Amino acid sequence: MSQLVINSLEELTKYEGTEMGVSDFHTITQEQINKFADATMDHQWIHLDAERAKNETPFGATIAHGYLTVSLLPYLWSQITAIHNLKMQVNYEIESLRFNQAVTVNSRVRLRAKLLSVKNLRGIAKARLEVTLEIEDSKKPAYTGIITFLYHFND
């Protein structure tokens, strides 16, 4: 997969209303789930206890925290689009997000993103994205939603 390279607010604006692309697949490991549990202090057994999750959940395995999958957005988005000439990028808003399906351990997920709109806020680009986190070999995505990033370009 090749990244779409964007160097300015004007270039970003040209992609309004278009699908920007799809990231590579990322495997959700138990180690990643465990580290996220430690970082967020969310040690619910459905994420950490493989034997209990296998026997007591409809998932048949441990599942990733929903917010772990959301936290992958900037990483996966950066595989789709390389935005250069920035002072900084800020995660600004999650306008809507619906978790549609649990992501079981060792699942492979990828991001599909469409640029809905770009607004110029005194030189800062407010980019709204329609995002879908797809699960390999599943018709139902992990989540769908609309997120916003702010891009502070150098010029």
Protein architecture, described:
The protein has 155 residues and is an alpha+beta fold. It contains 6 helices and 8 strands; from the N terminus they run βαββαααααβββββ. The chain has helices spanning 9-13, 30-40, 45-48, 50-56, 66-71, 73-80, and strands spanning 4-6, 18-22, 26-27, 81-83, 86-99, 108-121, 124-135, 143-153. It is elongated, with a radius of gyration of 17 Å.
Q: How are the secondary structure elements laid out?
A:
Layout: E1 4-6, H1 9-13, E2 18-22, E3 26-27, H2 30-40, H3 45-48, H4 50-56, H5 66-71, H6 73-80, E4 81-83, E5 86-99, E6 108-121, E7 124-135, E8 143-153
Parallel strand pairs: 1-4
Antiparallel strand pairs: 2-6, 3-6, 5-8, 6-7, 7-8
Helix content: 25-40%
Look at the structure and give the mean pLDDT: 96
Q: Please give the count of helices.
A: 6
In sequence order, what are the helices and strands, one letter per element?
Answer: EHEEHHHHHEEEEE
* Terminal CA distance: 29 Å
* Helix-strand makeup class: alpha+beta
Number of strands: 8
The profile of the biggest β sheet is: 6 strands, antiparallel
- Molecular shape: elongated
CA-atom Rg in angstroms: 17 Å
**Unreliable runs:** none
Strand content of the residues, in percent?
35-45%
